[in-house]
Write a structure and sequence with these properties.
Layout lengths: L1 H27 L6 E2 L1 H6 L6 E5 L6 H4 L6 E2 L2 H4 L1 E2 L4 E2 L2 H10 L7 E5 L5 H12 L5 E4 L2 H7 L29 H10 L3 E4 L3 H5 L22 E2 L15 H10 L8 E4 L4 H13 L4 E3 L3 H5 L19
Parallel strand pairs: 1-7, 2-3, 2-6, 6-7, 8-9, 8-10, 10-11
Antiparallel strand pairs: 4-5
Helix pairs in contact: 6-11
């Protein structure tokens, strides 16, 4: 009985607070945790301390109608370095964050299509540069539109912000060398969040994808928990309790650092967000992901489907 009490206490210290916070947000939609719901956001559309930002995969969807007051970020130009394969530089992101009108006391709400894939990518970049009070709209565009909440086509005109961002926090980002070390030593848990067919090597990438590799499969010792298993039918995250069980059943309990990856880092950002922000685990996103690892000469690949250059 004493041992059980010690284990329970350790768990409460390590994860209890973070999970409770996530549960409160999921249930109430207030702005005290990582998620807000549509009801809260609709009530705060005119709040001068709130900035709404859309980051969608389909870069034309914003112009067809967006949440009133929202500003648009194009992920492949605004949030990345357009010359090197990298996230936006500190200087570029500093200019961007001020154009969005973000101050020290601003709450930033990110949302997008495809269950918030690139909105979560945005949240990851915001977090890397130390921007506080960044939330995701739970369910993104999908649920907002399904609930028939208002849309607008006007472009918001907001005063420039004064926030000074921090230097990039490399603790949130995994590099190829980190993935290799985790694969060899198992000092961190590797989580491949792609579909089962991508993980097994049956397919190289989802249909229509342009970012390809010459090899299919996954990183040795990576576990597979597809990102889609973490969301409900309406696009919202499952409850913290369901999420905790989902990952625990796959052998992921947060006791070791976690590295998540996908194909280019956007779907894995979605998993990074829920594991770090909702469950409170220590997580890095490997944005090089499979397009870097699968194209690297000399690295081992597990390919149970046996595909070679796209031919079985």
């Amino acid at each position: 009985m004493k041992l059980k009490s010690i284990v329970a206490a350790a768990f409460a210290i390590g994860f209890g607070a973070a999970i409770s916070a996530g549960a409160a947000v999921a249930q109430t939609g207030n702005a005290s945790g990582p998620l807000v719901n549509g009801e809260w956001l609709e009530k705060n559309l005119s709040n001068p301390k709130v900035r709404i930002v859309e980051v969608s995969v389909d870069t034309g969807v914003f112009e067809r109608g967006h949440i009133p007051g929202a500003q648009n970020l194009v992920w492949h130009t605004d949030l990345v370095d357009t010359v090197r394969r990298d996230i936006a530089s500190k200087e570029k992101f500093q200019d961007l964050i001020r154009k969005l009108g973000v101050d020290q006391d601003t709450t930033v709400v990110l949302y997008g299509d495809n269950n918030n894939w690139f909105a979560a990518w945005g949240a990851w970049v915001f977090d890397i540069y130390g921007v506080n009070n960044v939330k995701l709209l739970d369910g993104g565009r999908k649920k907002w539109e399904a609930d028939k909440r208002p849309l607008d086509t006007r472009v918001a005109s907001l005063p420039a912000g004064k926030l000074t961002i921090s230097a990039a926090n490399e603790k949130l980002r995994a590099r190829l060398v980190d993935v290799r070390a985790a694969s060899d030593s198992k000092n961190a848990t590797l989580v491949d969040i792609r579909s089962a067919d991508e993980y097994s090597g049956k397919i190289f990438a989802p249909p229509g994808s342009q970012e390809l590799t010459v090899r299919a499969g996954h990183v040795p010792n990576a576990l597979n928990v597809p990102w889609s298993r973490a969301v409900a039918e309406d696009g919202t995250f499952k409850s913290p309790e369901e999420l905790k069980k989902l990952y625990a059943d796959a052998g992921i309990d947060g006791k070791k650092p976690i590295i998540v990856y996908c194909r280019i880092g956007e779907r894995s950002s979605h998993t990074w967000f829920l594991l770090s922000k909702i469950l409170g685990y220590d997580v890095k996103n490997y944005d090089g992901s499979w397009t870097e690892y699968g194209n690297s000469v000399g690295l081992p690949v597990i390919n149970v489907a046996g595909t070679v250059w796209g031919v079985k």
